[in-house]
Amino acid sequence: MIGSLPVPHVDFRRTGLSEHQPPADLRMRFGITGNTQKDGLWNPVADLISFLEESDHSAVLHPNIERGLLDRDLISKGASHAESIDDFFQRSDVILSFGGDGTLLNTVAELGTREIPILGVNHGRLGFLANVEGAELEGRIENLAKGDYVVDQRLVLQAELDSERELMLPYALNEFTIQRSGDAGLLAINVEVDNIHLNTYWADGLIISTPTGSTAYSMALGGPIMAPGCGSILITPIAPHALSVRPVVIPDTSVIRVRTLDADKSHILTSDGVNEIDALKGDGVTVCKASHHVHLIRFPDQDYFSTLRTKLMWGARKSS
Fold first, then answer.
1. Tens of pLDDT, residues 41-52
2. In a domain, 262, yes or no
3. What is the domain count for the chain?
4. Is 252 labeled as catalytic in the residue annotation?
């Protein structure tokens, strides 16, 4: 108790447990996708396909992955073939995303509103989201087959332009940004939260991020780290003119309306680091919580705080 208020128990190892965990010992279909620009991708994926077949599971290959494996004579065309990206997702119980966090974000973009669990296999650098290393993957496959895992439901943001133009990438797992592009000088960015004026920022841009995205671009600008499941959205200015302007955390039930006041200055809207629209020309953008979640797989021996300590090297001693 703190004063007269009870302290709620929050288990950060199990925040956002999903209903989509299949029963143990099922024959599972693993959809395999990844960063095809990485030369080190192909042999591990081919080895995994063989392992899955020996383990009485099956692989479903993203068309780009299948094409790369066939070109390298690592597989022959067979049951793992998917006719299209839609067919790939429809036939997959779990998605294995090989690469770094950027690759996983690309996988999320392709998923759209589908809520298929994703396991990120790290072939990148930091790997906040891609939290399984290649060397441990076979053991983790066995964990999945036994039902020994947890699925976290991660908040997704949705954006919509006030004009009739449609966004190709209307959802973001990490963040949406509005930022200047090329031209010198600051942008004037007006922000309202639930129809109440928050601020007019003079800055290089603005980031609207989820708790998942709080360890991405926003963290590099001094924004706070928010644990998944905390039910918040983070607004972080990019290089604001006034030193007193700080990031603001608001409830995830909020509706945020952003409008640039400099229609003559070149600026862009990005979704998870991908340029969505150039030269917004004063269009208003409305951002809110999406109706669906992204489902990320982790295991009972993993938790959010240990990931922070490991990836950010908290408490690491400098070697002599």
1. 999 999 999 999
2. yes
3. 2
4. no
